[in-house]
Write a structure and sequence with these properties.
Elements (H helix, E strand, L loop, with lengths): L1 H16 L3 E3 L13 E3 L3 H21 L7 H17 L13 E5 L6 E4 L3 E5 H7 L3 H16 L2 H15 L9 H17 L5 H17 L6 H15 L3 H5 L6 H20 L1
Parallel strand pairs: 3-5
Antiparallel strand pairs: 1-2, 4-5
Bound molecules: zinc ion (ZN).
Zinc ion binds next to helix 5 and helix 8.
């Protein structure tokens, strides 16, 4: 009896505090990504946390004199992102209108990410270590943007919170105010520490090459970029690899999908 009662309380708490929804966040595109996702946290909650986290990261970098230090590098990264952003409309209509922000952080870390809602950071270490061509850099940024379009962080945070609810921590125990705190902490974990799942990586790879192609960047550059990343991993494992694990068949998959979106690139080049 007691178990059933607890169960009812738990279920009520979950339903009351979180709007559980299963949705299709993106159009499937030429690459055909059509997995449905379940969320326990709203986009608004996640995006709000992302705005704060992004401001914090930029503020810290600025204080250390590491924010947008190289104007040429910043201009290059922003120019590439500016071509990719309109291409996001192929996957979701709202995305081109997001409050996109793009900054370069001076750091030896080989890293790049895009927080929910379009808050992008590229680390100078990635550019200085890999010496990417514009096409290659576009596929990295496209990959990161794809994670944001697919709301992978929101999905990961939802998953974490679901697990906490299951073990009785979280909404059932904490108040609603603490819930916001939890979302913020989870988002930081997801952005900086936790690896994306293989499924998320494959989706980001495929959507990333389509974004690049639509923006007029050679999608095949994703393959050479990965080869450079792997080569570097031998001597000094890039930070990027800890959050973007390498599925065994990544290159093979990229070859197939770069080929599939190649006509989009040719069209965009005209
Ligand atoms: Zn990734």
């Amino acid at each position: 009896m007691r178990t059933r009662w607890l169960c009812a309380v738990w279920l009520f708490s979950v339903l009351a505090l979180t709007a559980c929804e299963t949705v299709q966040t993106t159009q499937s595109g030429v690459v055909g990504v059509d997995r449905k996702q379940t969320f326990l946290v709203s986009s608004d909650e996640i995006n709000q946390s992302a705005v704060q986290a992004y401001q914090k990261v930029l503020g810290d970098a600025k204080q250390k004199g590491e924010l947008d230090r190289d104007p040429a590098q910043l201009q290059r990264v922003r120019a590439i992102a500016a071509r990719l952003v309109p291409a996001t409309g192929a996957f979701r209509q709202d995305a081109p209108g997001w409050k996109w922000e793009v900054n370069v952080i001076s750091s030896d870390e080989v890293n790049a990410w895009c927080m929910p809602g379009g808050k992008i950071a590229v680390y100078s270490g990635l550019i200085n270590s890999l010496h990417p061509t514009d096409d290659e850099l576009a596929t990295v940024i496209g990959h990161e943007i794809a994670h944001a379009l697919r709301e992978h962080s929101r999905e990961q945070v939802s998953h974490q919170m679901g697990q906490q609810l299951l073990i009785g921590v979280g909404a059932a125990v904490l108040g609603v105010g603490d819930l916001g705190q939890q979302v913020a902490q989870s988002l930081l974990d997801v952005t900086f520490n936790l690896p994306h799942s293989r499924t998320d990586e494959t989706e980001a790879d495929r959507i990333g090459v389509e974004l690049a192609a639509r923006a007029g960047y050679d999608p095949r550059a994703a393959i050479t970029l990965w080869q450079k990343m792997e080569k570097l991993a031998g001597s000094r494992p890039p930070q990027w690899l800890s959050t973007h694990p390498d599925p065994a068949n990544r290159t093979k998959d990229l070859e197939v999908y770069a080929q599939r979106v190649y006509p989009l690139y040719q069209q965009a080049k005209k």
